[in-house]
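Hi support team,

I submitted a single chain yesterday and got back a structure, but I'm not sure I'm reading the C-alpha cell output correctly. Could someone confirm the output below corresponds to the sequence I sent? I've pasted both exactly as they appear in my results page.

Thanks,
R.
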Amino acid sequence: MKKRTIVLSFLTIIAMIITACGQADENNEPAVDTEIPTNEQADLLVSIQESGVLKVGTEGTYPPFTFHDDSGQLTGFDVEIAREIAARLGVEAEFLETQWDGIMAGLDAKRFDVIANQVGIRADRQEKYDFSIPYITSSAVIVTKADNDAVNSVEDIKGLTSAQSLTSNYESIALEYGAVIEPVEGFTQAISLIQSNRVDITINDRLTVLDYITQKGEENIKVIPTIEEKSPSGILIRKGNETLVEAINKAIEEMMEDGTYLEISMKWFGEDVSK
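Hi R., thanks for writing in. Yes, this is the structure output for that exact sequence:
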C-alpha cells in the first residue's frame, strides 16, 4: 500500500511539471526573428546613417547643376538638393567628382551611394537602377553658331558633327536624328568646339544653355528647341536599396512641401523647375 502511494505521488509530481511547462509556453512571447537582414538596401541606409555620410557622385563641371564657383567651391542646383536630402537623412553629403562617362560605373563599384547630376529617368536605365521621384523637369535644345543658317530644327542635323557626352540623353537624340558624335567631357567643352568650328552643333539641357548664355553674355550662339518633350530627372541609386529610395523620396517630398525646394529652384533658375 505504501509503495502504491509513492508511485501515485511521483506521477502527480510529473503531471504538475508537464502542466507548468505548458503554461510557461503559452505565456511566452512569440519568438523574435533574429535573422540578420540580407537586403542590401536596408544595410545601405543603416550604413549611411551610422557613418554619418551620404556619398554622392557628381560631375562638378556641369553648371548650373554641379560646378565650381569662382572661389573653387563645389556648388549648383543638384549639389544643394543633395545636401538637403542628406540633412534630412540625418547625415552630411560627401561629393565625389567624376566624368559623366564613368559616373555610373562608379555607382556600380560602390564608390558612392547615389548620383545627383540631373540624370534623366529612362526605361533602359530603370532596368538596371532605381530612381528617386523626379525632382527636375527640363527639355533638350540644339546649340550652334549664330550665323549657322543651315540648322533650324532637329531634322537638319543629319550628317552634322555634334559634340556630346557619351551615354547621355542628348547623345541619344543626336544619334536618333543622324548626327555624327564627337565625344566631349561636358557642355563647356562642347561650346568651345562650336566656337572654334570643330563641330557643328551640340544638344544639351535647356536650363544649362540658358544659364551659360546668362553667365557668359554669349551672343555668338543660337538655341533651337528639339521636338523632345520635357523629360524628368531623379537621384540614381543601385537596385536593392528600397529603404534608401523611400527615405530619399520622403526627403524630396518634404522639401517640396515646406518650400525649401522652391527656394533652391528660384535661386538657380528663377522658376519652379519641378514641373
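A quick pointer for reading it: The first helix runs from residue 2 to 27. Let us know if anything else looks off.

Best,
Support desk
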